[in-house]
Amino acid sequence: MSPRPSDDLTAAFARLGGEEDAKVWSELWDDLCHQGSVYDDSYLALPFLTAIAAGRAPGEPTEAVLMAGLVVSAADEERTARYTEEIAELLPVARRLLEAATVDVPAFVHLLQCVLAFEGERVWSATRLEGLMEEEYEVECPHCSSELFIAFGEHGTFASAGDYVTADPVKAALLPTAPADLDALPARLRHMALEAGHEDVARGLTHLFGRAICPDCEGEFTVSDQVEERY
Known about the structure:
There is one protein chain. This protein has about 230 residues and is α+β, with helices and mostly antiparallel strands. It folds into 2 domains: about 5-120; about 130-230, no CATH class. The chain contains 12 helices and 7 strands. It has helices at about 5-15, 20-30, 40-45, 45-55, 60-75, 75-80, 85-100, 105-120, 130-135, 185-195, 200-210, 225-230, and strands spanning about 135-140, 145-155, 155-160, 170, 175, 210-215, 220. The chain has a 4-stranded antiparallel beta sheet. A 3-stranded antiparallel beta sheet has the order 5-6-7. It starts with 6 loop residues before the first helix and ends with a helix.
């Protein structure tokens, strides 16, 4: 038998549909996905979130999809199977919202992760693409354990062993993967970014799934492997 939502959870979602929706969503995020964490009650919220996303219940569909995507990204096989119907209903909604996210980079990246989560991907759906919004990742060199910044934005393209914004650290090269050489998933993500007009995200993916040279030990490593380890 599937667990039943608590009366408090039911009451929380029943508050949506009025002038205080922004406050209600803020409280729901704090209670169900505080700082990106997922709890038992988070999964119990999926039927409510699905109803909102599908337009059967009051509330903002994008908020519902974003919260559901984060929850599903953490689901194990048992929970994925338990909420198969909800996930199947959420996926086309997330895809439609993603197609419309042609201006806001954070919205595009978050929705992209939601689509991956509903499709069953459990690595890059779980917040690890979010460095594409800031155009940087903080990782550890697998050879010498130095803390490194991987930057591919307005400050340049490099690996740095220190704060590259307020200091002048030693920098080393990034070695992006040529688009034609990307594996299936990053190639698909890059294509989706280009279709949405997010060229910076597409370029960032070639660095995320490329290689870097550590400025401390000159060791070379795959950026995505270290991002997966860290995040």
